[in-house]
Write a structure and sequence with these properties.
The complex is a heterodimer of chains A (187) and B (240). Chain A is built from 3 helices and 4 strands; from the N terminus they run ααββββα. Chain A is of the alpha+beta class. Chain A has one domain. A 4-stranded antiparallel β-sheet of chain A has the order 1-2-3-4. The longest helix of chain A is centred in the middle third of the chain and has 56 residues. Chain B has one domain. Chain B has 6 helices and 10 strands; from the N terminus they run ααββββαββββααββα. In chain B, the strands form 2 sheets. A 6-stranded antiparallel β-sheet of chain B has the order 5-4-3-2-1-8. The longest helix of chain B is centred in the N-terminal third of the chain and has 54 residues. Chain B starts with a helix and ends with a helix. Classes of the chains: A alpha+beta (187), B alpha+beta (240). At the A-B interface, helix 1, helix 2 and helix 3 of A face helix 2, strand 9, strand 10 and helix 6 of B.
């Protein structure tokens, strides 16, 4: 066999190269690895990044909840104001006082009730003390207090809506003014 | 010998496949939940916002409605037409405010039902030409639309919500009657041609649920006139 030059060469190659190759591969693997500290740093950096992303996500969901709350509140407020106005027209007066109501399907107001919690509202009528008067007696001097009759007095109507089942349960209110005629009281 | 060193064992392959599967599943889950939230948000923003804007628009137009000779306030449960300010283009092509008729109705001719707003110029409106139609704006995709009109019955002294408002027949009788009367009396009487208020009820689809919203809008000139009239009547009755 040794007489054939080709085979001689092959024999030598098989013998030498595997051992040298395994040695090279082994050293390369050892150099390529990460240390424990490096992995720890990478994981903590990733954790910090993830926390930031999740925080932003939850903030935006919260902001959306608040926006939906305000939209629903404004919508309900307008509907309640409408029914207050209806009462004022049919009774021709809005007596001073306070009343509360909880939303139900029989209240005449229809709204989006998909989200949790129950809406409720209260109506508060206060006398402002402002009056429209007509002078009936004679006016003799500027500081004179002439005899007057009241045409109407002005009442402040404040409607507040809130949904205690949601957080934050903001109270949203609107204020309007309504005339109260004294002759209506006698009717 | 070469192959035995360079290859992966079955366990290694399974481990890699397992890790890949976990990572892939996590990504898909995150993505699909994100996508679901996105669709929900978009549905909320488009449908509900459009419905709310259309109600605001109706409210604003109805609050500013007035009585005008030639254009009557005509209302049924499905459609309301009343005089108001519309936009039209002048000869120079610039938009300007003009008197006309505004209509709101449920358009169910298309694939989806839409609440639509139609503007008709004064000349079109008084001709009562049903064929001629002004510009139509489709406001929101909804399921149902219903109008009710707040009316006063002087005989029973009672207020109620009626499903129809049409005083156009009275108008023609009135024109003969009121001719000898003074101009300002005529003007005042015409406020009677408006209902005291309109209740708008809109239902729309949010996902697979149908949500209904309603709102009452009162027309101030008609309300003031009615209250003044009723108070004057009450006073007369008390004095007698």
């Amino acid at each position: 066999m040794r007489g054939v030059p080709g085979l001689d060469c092959d024999d030598e190659a098989i013998f030498v190269s595997p051992s040298s190759q395994t040695a090279t591969t082994f050293t390369l693997h050892a150099a390529k690895g990460f240390t424990f500290i490096e992995i720890l740093m990478a994981v903590s950096l990733l954790a910090v990044g993830m926390v930031g992303v999740l925080r932003a996500y939850s903030t935006s969901v919260n902001a959306m909840e608040i926006a939906q709350y305000n939209t629903d509140a404004a919508c309900l407020l307008k509907a309640v104001m409408g029914s207050v106005e209806e009462d004022y027209i049919s009774q021709r007066d809005m007596p001073v006082g306070r009343s509360e109501e909880v939303y139900s399907s029989s209240s005449g107001i229809k709204m989006d009730t998909t989200r949790s919690g129950r809406w409720q509202w209260d109506k508060e009528v206060l006398a402002t003390g402002l009056q429209a008067v007509k002078v009936v007696g004679p006016v003799t001097a500027l500081d004179d207090n002439p005899e007057t009759i009241v045409i109407y007095s002005l009442n402040e109507v404040k409607v507040t809506v809130v949904n205690p089942g949601r957080s934050p349960a903001r109270r949203v209110n609107a204020v309007t003014y309504m005339e109260s005629y004294p002759e209506d009281d006698s009717v | 010998m070469f192959k035995a060193v360079k290859g992966f064992t079955l366990v290694e392959m399974m481990l890699v496949a397992g890790i890949l599967a976990i990572i892939g599943l996590t990504i898909v889950a995150t993505f699909s939940s994100g996508l679901r939230i996105f669709y929900r948000m978009e549905g909320y923003n488009t449908v509900k916002a459009d419905v709310l804007i259309s109600i605001e628009k109706m409210e604003r137009d109805l609050k500013n409605a007035f009585s005008y000779r030639g254009i009557e306030f005509i209302g049924s449960s499905k459609k309301v037409t009343f005089p108001g300010l519309i936009r039209k283009f002048n000869s120079e092509g610039r938009p300007e405010e003009s008197l006309g008729a505004i209509s709101y109705y449920l358009d169910d001719s298309g694939k989806t039902k839409m609440v639509s707003r139609e503007e008709n110029k004064y000349t079109q409106a008084i001709k009562k030409d049903r064929g001629a139609r002004g510009p139509i704006t489709r406001l929101a995709s909804i399921e149902g639309l219903d109008f009710k009109y707040y009316v006063y019955d002087p005989e029973s002294d009672f207020y109620s919500w009626a499903s129809v408002w049409d005083k156009s027949d009275d108008m023609e009788d009135d024109e003969e009657d009121t001719k000898p009367k003074q101009e300002n009396v005529q003007l005042k009487d015409r406020e009677d041609k408006l209902p005291l208020g309109v209740k708008i009820e809109v239902s729309y689809k949010d996902g697979d649920k149908i949500i209904t919203l309603n709102r009452a809008v009162f027309i101030q000139p008609a309300v003031s006139l009615n209250l003044a009239k009723v108070r004057a009547l009450k006073k007369d009755n008390d004095n007698n």
